[in-house]
Specification:
Layout (H helix, E strand, L loop, with lengths): L20 H10 L11 H16 L7 E4 L6 H11 L4 E5 L6 H9 L6 E5 L6 H13 L1 E6 L6 E6 L4 E6 L7 H4 L4 E4 L5 H14 L3 E2 L1 H9 L5 H18 L3 E2 L1 H10 L9 H13 L7 H8 L3 H14 L3 E4 L2 E4 L1 H6 L25
Parallel strand pairs: 1-6, 1-7, 2-3, 3-6, 8-9
Antiparallel strand pairs: 4-5, 10-11
Helix pairs in contact: 4-5, 7-8, 7-9, 8-10, 9-10, 11-12, 12-13
Protein name: Holliday junction branch migration complex subunit RuvB
Pfam families: AAA_lid_4, RuvB_N, WHD_RuvB
GO cellular component, one term: Holliday junction resolvase complex
Length: about 350
Amino acid sequence: MNWDDAPADTPDRLVGSAADREDQAVEAALRPKELDEFIGQERVRQQLDLVLKAARQRNATADHVLLSGAPGLGKTTLSMIIAAEMSAPIRITSGPAIQHAGDLAAILSSLTEGEVLFLDEIHRMSRPAEEMLYMAMEDFRVDVIVGKGPGATAIPLELPPFTLVGATTRAGLLPPPLRDRFGFTGHMEFYAPAELERVIHRSAGLLDVRIDADGAAEIAGRSRGTPRIANRLLRRVRDYAQVRADGVITREIAASALEVYEVDARGLDRLDRAVLHALLKLFGGGPVGLSTLAVAVGEERETVEEVAEPFLVREGLLARTPRGRVATPAAWSHLGLVPPPQAGGTSPGGSGQTGLFGT
């Protein structure tokens, strides 16, 4: 599969990790401005703190930084904090926006000394631009090609020292020559519920929302380990509490609100449960091929594979095997169903062959 064509989360998913315009506006207001205010990611935060303090003491530009991890964990926020900690401006762009080496040359040539260039989805940058970036990161210069054919001339263009902050959800897709040029690499982990509770309390204070400890814990437990999703759920629960209660978010109010929005106690939404329901009820727990499963839930194959499956696998509700997708005992338990004697081991026909339901 071409990752450039991978689907984003469907826009109506409350627990989707992609950010829409509303999320971007709210995130801008809720983002911490300093490293000390950043919640979670303790290891990355401490290591990055050392890198930035050392650079400031040397009065030098900070090393290039690569941040990897799932969407919504704070990579953009950390890039802005890096710029703030270094008292430098920040330029924000993305890999898909740089399709030609000339696009990158135009951006690099306009940078000022010490400026931070944040390059989101860096793994989706075009190959010619990648190759130009190698020299820019290492030697702070690029060669601009003027003309075509035998008469083409390479004109070296000196660049001021700058800090590149690359963000990627697919670190394995970065070519080694590019990955090796980053002076610091940090991997962003999913958040523990206790950390998400701190995020929710902080956001509630900034949004002027009244919430108790149990209400924050209820939202955190359904946030799939992702601060962006936690903030989104908080806003929807706030709406429910404002319209149907006294405005205070308690555990009961949070649970009732998220039931309305079809987000269950483990953070699964309608699409997630539809995949599990089809796997369990129609195919006896599997194994079943991905295409067959996608047809059963009325979605595209890529949507099931890239949007629903990662969280189901991480939660231990679904397993990918050479013979197809298989439900785990936890999936049967979560939907309140009793597995058949050979659940997950045979096809519904009981022959033990994948046949129609194979990969």
